[in-house]
Every structure is written in C-alpha cells, then in structure tokens.
Predict the structure.
Amino acid sequence: MNVNDSEVILSILGGCGYTLTENMEEADLILANTCSVRDNAEQRIHGRIEQFLLAKKANRNVRIGIVGCMAERMKEELLEGGKVDLVCGPDSYRRLPELVGKLRAGQKAIDVQLSRSETYAEIIPHRLDKTGVSAFISIMRGCNNVCSYCVVPYTRGVERSREPESIVAEARDLENKGYREITLLGQNVDSYRFTAEDGSVLNFAGLLAKVAEAVPDMRIRFSTSNPHDLSDEVLETMAAHDNICRHIHLPVQSGSNAMLEKMRRKYTREWYLERVAAIRRIIPDCGLSTDVIAGFCGETLEDHLATLSLMDEVGFDSAFMFQYSERPGTLAARHYADDVPAEEKTRRLNEIISHQVRSSARRYGSQIGLTHRVLIEGPSHKSASDLCGRASNNMMCVFPDLQPGVDRKGRYADVRVVGSTSATLLCEEI
Ligand code: SAH
Ligand code: SF4
C-alpha cells in the first residue's frame, strides 16, 4: 500500500515538474513514506532521517519530508528538533506541491488532515516497479475496524471505496502499458462498497467480476481479506473467472478465541476454520497465506498453543509473523498491559516460525508432479540461466530458461513441478 501511495505522490509531484532520482546526493527533496504498524518500522525511519541529514550536510538546499502513517501519527512532533522540514499525512498528498512551495519560501510545512472522501481516484500512479509485469491498484482507503492492537484506523482514517469506473480505467491503462497482473489493494477489500448516484451498490464480488471481465488477459489478485467479511459470493466470483488468481491472504492473528475477542477481530477460531473450509470447497486449488501476532496482551501458553494448533490444522502456504508491538493510542495500549516478556514473545514467535516453515515445506512439497501456468517475471534472483514467476496460487516457481536471449518477461510458461523448498517450486517447462 505504501509503494502504491509513493506512486501517487510521484505522479502528483511529477505534475509540477519534479522527477525521481535514485541518487540521494542529487535530490532537492527527500521524502520518506512511512509505516506505523509496528515500532521497529518507525525506528528504521529515525535511522533513515540521520542518513538524510548527512545528505543535507553535502547540499544545504535539500529538504527532508516525512509522509504516510508516521507523519499522521506524530504530526508536529516530527518537526521539533529541526531535522525534518515537511510532514504530510496519507490524505494530503494533493497539497504536496503547495507544501513544497512553502519549503522553498523557507518555511516548515505540515498537513495531516484526514479525509472522508479522498481516494486519489483519477490520479494515474507513476509506476515504480522495474519489471513492468505486475502493478497495484488501490480500491479503497482507510479502515472502519478497530482491531485493538492496530494503529491503521488512526493513521489512515475512515474507510472509503473508490469509484469503480476509475479502477477499471486504471486497469485498462496498465494493460495498454504492457502489464499482465494487477493486485487490488485495501485494508479490508471484502467491505468494498460503492454506491452510485442512482443508488445502485457495487460490492467487492461485483467489483472483482467487473475488473476481471474488463481486462480478461490480465491476472487479478487482491489483498487483504478479513475473515469476518470474506463471503461465499467472492469465492464463487473467483471460481467463475479464470483470470482471478487462486490465492487468498487471510490474516488470522491468533488461534485462541480469548485473544481474538481481545483483539476485537469479530470472528472466532471456528468461524475462521469454516471460512477456510469454504475456500477449499469452492476453490479446491486455492493458495492460502496469513498473518500471525505472537505475544499479544495477556496471551497465555494455552492461547499460544491454540495458534500453533490452528496453523497445523489449516496448513498455510506462507505467513507473515510478528511479535506484538504496542502502538500508542490504540485500544490495546489504553486498556491492556503489554505483559508477555520480550524474550517469551521471541520464543513464541520462533516456535510459530518453525511450525510455518514445516507447513510451507509440506504445502510446496505437495505440488510435486502438478503443472502450473506461470507468469514470467524475469531471470531468477539466484541464477541468470533460470526464469522465475508466480503460479496462480502465488507460489514462486523457478525453471531453466529454454530460450536464452529471448525476453519472455510478462509471458506465460506452463511448467511441471519437479522439486520444492519451503518457499520455491523447482520446475521444468513443458
Ligand atoms: N488490514 C489488514 C492488515 C493490516 S496490518 C488486516 O486486517 O488483515 C498487517 C499486519 O500487521 C496485520 O495483519 C497484523 O498481523 C500485523 N500487525 C498490525 N498491528 C500490529 C501490532 N501492533 N503488533 C504486531 N503486529 C501488528
Ligand atoms: Fe488494522 Fe484491523 Fe483495520 Fe486490518 S482490519 S487495518 S488489522 S484495524
């Protein structure tokens, strides 16, 4: 989501003559787009600011700005101490040219106003990816949930859905530019809901179908699904469209009902397992990944074991796994003690990771002998004589390049899986 926001920012600043440089020494303006979701993400930014200040020593005219969630969370505090010149929250990017103008006049600049309607709908993002194969489209902004650990609703504001025609127009534009895959982005895509002027309502299943049908030669992915809101209608829409990839990222966070309730996730372990069963019933070959938090407030050993047993029961292909990090201002920070000792959080996280590595190895191993259609992203990172790309289920496939010298990026290859690791399918082209 931040990469996509950076693309919007570049498009807005590009409109008033700014161009992107990869070289910090050359820059007139350095912007850091920031994440507040965990404390270590914020700490990294403080480190980056020190690096930017070195660039400022070499060129006194360079200005430093913090944009995104940390700008929204910390506001004026970031300007104190004089290290940073500009602070701009996620809903204020249209004002960046004006704010940069203020910097030129020697003033500090800040705008952290959140909006109920901003979706940057008609702004065509300046794409940052280098492969030209896969791109993000933001379909909504903000979040209306109040998961007790999460800072996102405070930094990105209330949920709003983007007008569908502008989403379809962006998908078509990407197709014309040669892209082959799009990922529809939102904090909770299943609650996408757009009401047109005539009163008609489009939900996420409707949007998925509309996009899949508008660009039938493109692959469609989406993220993130919330287990509470993932409907059978979405699953059936996926099953009915070949170009919607067979993969769902379905963050579970914990396998313990006591923790899920305290997290205010609005579902139970049983509900989650039923949604997984629905996925496997309606889309049997669907890939499944998740997010897990270790050591949330008051988590007992029993709660932790419930997470491990859920992970074993589901058998996720992959997972993003985190230690709980208390975020100022959230419900959890206000109401619950962050009482699992740091070393115990680490121990539990490591246990979660080793369960996941075993599960990934099993899931990837179960693909041996199967065939997949892979969208080629380019040479593999490890060997220039191999190509890599993802199968529809999101598993990374690597296979020997049978046509060296031919640029096959963005084309499809049919492969058979002959081996696996816990993160890669080793394949041969058929
Ligand atoms: N909207 C998405 C997730 C957004 S944040 C959803 O609801 O699934 C991405 C992930 O970061 C979350 O799924 C969660 O696992 C993790 N996360 C969020 N807040 C956190 C915190 N305070 N400490 C640790 N992990 C956190
Ligand atoms: Fe945060 Fe929950 Fe919203 Fe996801 S759904 S962004 S975890 S509040």
